[in-house]
């Protein structure tokens, strides 16, 4: 019998699973090798879906073993986890000297990865520097104790003394305040759950027809976001969901599906956008998408006369309008809807405090769907804390290329070359100059630099019809360079424009830079973004950080990561009030949110959060064997750190298996130290479940230290000691010592695994 798998990584995992069942397989290159070999059970890599039987020879595929649905779910999960890796990557790509938080020892400075030989075994450590040049070496198996410091700027991060009381006091103070915030959060959850919204019927055949008319294939993330929105709308709870996805990643289609469901139930839909241009573009897009359905769509913006606007408002009040798209005017006083069911907000960060207060009053009555490429820190903060639901669209559309970004000191030669290169390939250029008073002078200079360019000028102080004409000229290629202000930040979708040059990029915010860069690269052509700056000494430190962040985040789908950078540069913004800002600064955002999450769970379970131990420290395991990713297997230090963090953060054996598959497929078959690392982590998952604080095992035995909250019944441990007193002894009330010969590494793993399983079985038997 020959078993086929889809990749080398899957072959290794299936081989291991079969070995656990006592089945020994032989790895063969292909079908021919299997026929020529005399083995009874073999395994190979072949992308096959169906089985085959010829005489007494059978070929079985992985799909048969695990089922079609299981494999598809696994693939979808892996695609969804691509974003998770990006998020972890942003947290672990630390530069030397960056502030890092250790749960037990406070805030130090990252000094890189270092390999040390302990007890004759090589182990890799993360090195942290504290006050008075004290160093802390954190084994890679304990990376769950480490988080990157994210507060109101890395430069303001404190530096603690190892063994000092400052950190413990700060942690306890934060834990006390976190408890109050958690209680308030749960109160908000309860009020949200108690308030009944409108429950839409489950989508029917008409919705399926509308969905099938979408001319593209949905990305996995887009599909997931649509499912989340439908689930929210069908439930009785009012929807308040944030859809975070890069420009052109399909957020609008998610909004259209939601709008269709609302209209099917006789509800009206309002779409609030920050600019007139975006209102115009959304109106055209929605009309195109709903062209085959009896849906009335109109807009309200400064492109319309007062008389036209009044007519639209009247239709809205009588219910003769299904979808209305508009700017700030949509939330003005005295504007009535007949039956508003869904409010879609595009780029919430562009609205002021007063508009947001008005939106808050609407939240109690209607479903809210917010679309954004880079959520502002406060919005991101609320989404991460669970006060708002969050869906992330991080998978780019097919054939989309990332935008090459250059941060350069302003230089006429480079500007000329960038424009000429784009024009020579038949493309168009955005030149961003955000000062209206000097925009004409800039146009003259550009015309002298590139005489063949046809330059159009667009800014917000122009008359509506004039601006509309400029945009139309650029869209229809009657101009090939658009010299403009940030008026193009949202809503301009011109696939032929694939170079953007931003003058004085240091003056823009991070979200703005990301949005503006997203104006190009909307097709399969390579796009370029040039961020022009003055001399470095003329820029603020925050501006330099923003430009570094935008240049580093070239990956498609990096908007969410940029938002976390924005969180670091600008600070998190308060969740419920001003009180917790100081604690965020003291212990860092990541740790604060972790403590908050744990406190919320504790209160939900009816427990009182432990203020002295606000976080679970995890289990420490030392089997005195090499468990690391060797330098000769993977040389990139940052990539090793990413993988260490992902392995350490894994919560299930399935996640570890998938990581194993991924590493084999990306970097080759795992060397023994990496296999050991995975086995140690699997042991750690079981030990944590049992409430084991520390496990130490060597060639002649070892010891297990139990946590105060262990799930193992003490009586079962006593019985174990009484049954085999020559092997097991209770050294203290919470420490079990065992004697056993375990010289071989494999024997050590097997015996420790069996011991943990026995302890686990004892717990199950007693519970049963």
Structure description:
The protein has 768 residues and is an alpha/beta fold. The strands form five sheets. The protein has a seven-stranded parallel beta sheet, with helices on both faces. It starts with a strand and ends with a helix.
Task: List key phrases describing it.
single chain; 768 residues; alpha/beta; Rossmann fold; seven-stranded parallel beta sheet; 19% strand; disordered C terminus
Short description:
With 768 residues, this protein is of the alpha/beta class. Helices cover 43% and strands 19% of the residues. The strands form 5 sheets. Strands 13-14-12-15-16-11-17 form a 7-stranded parallel sheet, with helices on both faces.
- What characteristic shape results from the CA principal axes? globular
Please describe the biggest sheet, giving its number of strands, its sense, and whether it closes into a barrel: 7 strands, parallel
**What is the strand tally?**
28
Query: Strands across the major sheet, in which order?
Result: 13-14-12-15-16-11-17
- Low-confidence residue ranges: 69-92, 556-560, 565-581, 762-768
Q: Give Rg in angstroms.
A: 30 Å
* Beta-strand proportion: 15-25%
Give the helix level as a range of percent.
40-55%
């Amino acid at each position: 019998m020959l078993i086929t798998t889809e990749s080398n990584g899957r072959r290794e995992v299936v081989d291991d699973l079969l070995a656990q069942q006592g089945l020994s397989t032989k790895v063969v290159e292909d079908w021919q090798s299997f026929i020529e070999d005399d083995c009874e059970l073999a395994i190979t890599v072949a992308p096959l879906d169906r089985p085959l039987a010829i005489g007494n020879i059978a070929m079985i595929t992985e799909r048969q073993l695990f089922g079609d649905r299981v494999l598809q779910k696994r693939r979808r999960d892996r695609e969804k986890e691509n974003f998770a890796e990006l998020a972890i990557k942003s947290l672990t790509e630390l530069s030397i000297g960056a502030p890092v938080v250790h749960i037990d020892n406070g805030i130090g400075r990252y000094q890189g990865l270092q390999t040390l030989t302990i007890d004759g075994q090589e182990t890799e450590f993360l090195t942290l520097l504290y006050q008075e040049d004290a160093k802390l070496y954190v084994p890679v198996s304990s990376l769950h104790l480490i988080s990157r410091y994210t507060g109101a700027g890395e430069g303001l991060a404190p530096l603690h003394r190892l063994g000092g009381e400052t950190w413990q006091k700060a942690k306890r103070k934060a834990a006390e305040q976190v408890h109050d915030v958690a209680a308030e959060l749960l109160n908000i959850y309860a009020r949200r759950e108690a308030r009944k919204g409108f429950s839409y019927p489950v989508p029917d055949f008409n919705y399926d027809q509308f969905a099938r008319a979408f001319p593209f294939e949905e990305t996995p993330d887009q599909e997931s976001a649509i499912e989340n929105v439908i689930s929210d709308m069908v439930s009785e709870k009012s929807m308040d969901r944030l859809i975070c996805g890069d420009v052109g990643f399909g957020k609008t289609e998610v909004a259209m599906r939601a709008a269709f469901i609302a209209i099917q139930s006789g509800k009206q839909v309002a779409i609030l956008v920050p600019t007139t241009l975006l209102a115009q573009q959304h109106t055209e897009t929605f009309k195109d998408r709903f062209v085959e359905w009896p849906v009335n769509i109109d807009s309200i913006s400064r492109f319309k006369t007062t008389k036209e606007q009044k007519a639209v408002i009247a239709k809205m009040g009588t219910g003769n309008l299904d979808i209305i798209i508009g700017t700030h005017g949509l939330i003005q006083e005295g504007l009535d809807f007949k039956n508003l069911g869904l409010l879609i907000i595009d780029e919430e960060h562009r609205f002021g405090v007063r508009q947001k207060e008005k939106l808050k009053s609407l939240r109690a009555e209607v479903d809210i769907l917010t679309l954004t490429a880079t959520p502002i820190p406060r919005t991101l903060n609320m989404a991460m804390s669970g006060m708002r639901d969050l869906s992330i669209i991080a998978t780019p559309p097919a054939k989309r290329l990332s935008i090459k970004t250059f941060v350069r000191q302003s230089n006429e030669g480079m500007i000329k070359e960038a424009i000429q290169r784009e024009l020579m390939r038949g493309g168009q250029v955005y030149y961003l100059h955000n000062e209206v008073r000097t925009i004409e002078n800039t146009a003259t200079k550009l015309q002298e630099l590139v005489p063949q360019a046809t330059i159009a000028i667009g800014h917000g102080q122009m008359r509506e019809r004039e601006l509309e004409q400029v945009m139309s000229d650029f869209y229809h290629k009657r101009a090939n360079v658009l010299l403009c202000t940030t008026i193009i930040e949202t809503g301009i979708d011109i696939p032929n424009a694939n170079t953007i040059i931003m003058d004085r990029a240091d003056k823009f915010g991070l979200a703005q830079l990301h949005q503006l860069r997203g104006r190009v690269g909307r097709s399969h052509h390579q796009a370029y973004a040039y961020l022009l700056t003055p001399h470095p000494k003329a820029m603020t430190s925050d501006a330099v950080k923003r430009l570094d962040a935008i240049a580093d985040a070239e990956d498609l789908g990096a908007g969410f990561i940029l938002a976390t950078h924005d969180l670091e540069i600008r600070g998190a913004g308060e969740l419920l009030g001003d009180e917790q800002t100081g604690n965020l600064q003291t212990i860092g955002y990541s740790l604060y949110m972790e403590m908050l999450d744990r406190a919320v769970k504790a209160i939900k379970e009816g427990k009182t959060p432990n203020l002295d131990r606000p976080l679970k420290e995890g289990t420490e395991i030392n089997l005195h064997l090499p468990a690391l990713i060797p330098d000769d297997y993977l040389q990139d230090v940052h990539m090793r750190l990413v993988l260490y963090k992902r392995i350490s953060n894994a919560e299930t054996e399935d996640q570890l298996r998938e990581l194993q598959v991924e590493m084999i497929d990306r970097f080759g078959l795992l060397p023994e130290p990496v296999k050991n690392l995975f086995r140690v982590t699997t042991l750690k998952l079981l030990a944590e479940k049992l409430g084991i604080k520390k496990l130490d095992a060597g060639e002649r035995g070892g010891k297990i230290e139990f946590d105060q909250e262990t799930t193992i019944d003490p009586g079962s441990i006593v019985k174990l000691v009484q049954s085999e007193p020559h092997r097991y002894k209770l050294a203290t009330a919470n420490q079990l010592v065992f004697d056993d010969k375990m010289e071989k590494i494999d024997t050590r793993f097997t015996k420790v695994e069996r011991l943990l399983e026995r302890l686990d079985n004892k717990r199950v038997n007693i519970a049963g």
